[in-house]
């Protein structure tokens, strides 16, 4: 609805497109005003002003007192930094993923946490005929995956409650759907430093996940090893001492291949 009028689907799409054009223009110019925006995009001054004010209210642009035009706002900056961080951790983690997959002869994946879901950033498939695939960009409920639980365990429990839905969704028969059980599980993950997926994300699939941290201990992403349950049994996932994610950074803060992922051993 704009100015009390309901927009058609076509009009709504056109409005979104114009707003995105304004964001691109702000990125290119650094700072933009009403007149410049109207001229560059071929729209009226009133439309340009309305879009700029809307983007300011939602945090995508900012307009400080004494500032002539509008510049990138906190939301836009946050999204940009998050994108850069994901690209950087993916680049740095690629070789460790390959080395770990070769060592264990299983599929190894890199996940990021986005509110209530984890997103598959990268992965290396093993050479077994029966193996776990790597659908890049796939999103899953964080609480049903090893990577998701490894990352959720590093967050404040109150924030986890706020981010995840009240009714926890299930993707397999083993998915945790009750909050008391999930909270207990995350406490165990915090204590041992790694998380397990025991047919919680998919039938007949097991996984182990550890968080990757930066130099000051902040979580960046998580690495998971996934395999058919017949090859990765629960008894092969013993607890380890200390935060396993710390092993994935060297002294320079670069991501490194974990020499030993907790509970997993290279085939002999």
Mean pLDDT: 80
Quantity of strands, as a count: 8
Which residue ranges are poorly predicted, with pLDDT under 50 across at least 5 consecutive positions?
A: 239-268
Secondary-structure content class: alpha+beta
Shape: elongated
Strand content: 15-25%
Radius of gyration: 23 Å
The termini sit apart by: 65 Å
Major sheet strand order:
5-4-3-8-7-6
SSE succession: HHHEEHEEEHHHEEE
Q: How much helix is in the residues?
A: 25-40%
Count of DSSP-assigned helices: 7
Main sheet attributes: strand count, strand direction, barrel closure: 6 strands, antiparallel
What would you note in describing this structure?
There is one protein chain. By secondary structure, the protein is an alpha+beta fold. The protein is built from 7 helices and 8 strands, in the order H-H-H-E-E-H-E-E-E-H-H-H-E-E-E. Strands 5-4-3-8-7-6 form a 6-stranded antiparallel β-sheet, sandwiched between helices. The chain has a two-stranded antiparallel ribbon with strand order 1-2. Strand 6 and strand 7 (205-213) form a beta hairpin. It is elongated. The termini are far apart.
